[in-house]
Amino acid sequence: MNLQQSHSPALPGDDRRVSKRAPVDLFMNRFLGGQPYLCVARDVSHTGMRLRTLLGPQLPNHFVGLQFQLPGSNEVLTASGEVVREGSEEVSIRFTHMPAASRQALEQFLAAN
User: Of 19, 53, 58, 88, which has the highest C-beta tally within 10 A?
Assistant: First the structure.
C-alpha cells in the first residue's frame, strides 16, 4: 500500500485519508515517556486513530505507545504510533508498529464495521 500524501493543496471537504475509519467511543491508554495517560478513541482505521485527550502533556511530533480494547472484544491490543496532528483536545496518530495479533483483530473489527 502506498501511503504517500498528495502535495496539492487540500480543498474544503477534501478527505486525504488512505483508509476507511470506523467510529468508536472507548477509553484507552496512550503512553508518553513510559507513563500511561487516559484518552478516548474517536475513530480507528488500518493506518491510525483519532483520540480525544483527557490527561497528559501535549508534545508535538512525538511517538506514543497505545493500548486499547475494541468494542465487543476482551483482547487488549497494543501499537505504537507517531502523532501526525495535535490540537487542544484531539490527537491523530499514524500507526508505526502493531503486533500481528493486534493487526488481525483490528482488521476483523474494521471488516465488520
Answer: 53
Q: What is the percent of the chain where pLDDT is above 70?
A: 81
In angstroms, the Cα distances linking 2 to 5, 19, 78, 98 are: 9, 11, 23, 18
pLDDT of the residue at 28: 96
Residue type at position 17: R
Number of residues in the chain: 113
Quickly state the pLDDT bin for 105 (edges 50, 70, 90). very high
DSSP structure string for the chain: ---PPP-SPPPTT----SS--EEEEEEEEEEETTEEEEEEEEEE-SSEEEEEE-SS---SS-EEEEEE--TT--PPEEEEEEEEEE-SSEEEEEEEE--HHHHHHHHHHHHH-
58-92 pLDDT, tens digit each:
665 589 999 999 999 999 999 999 999 888 789 99
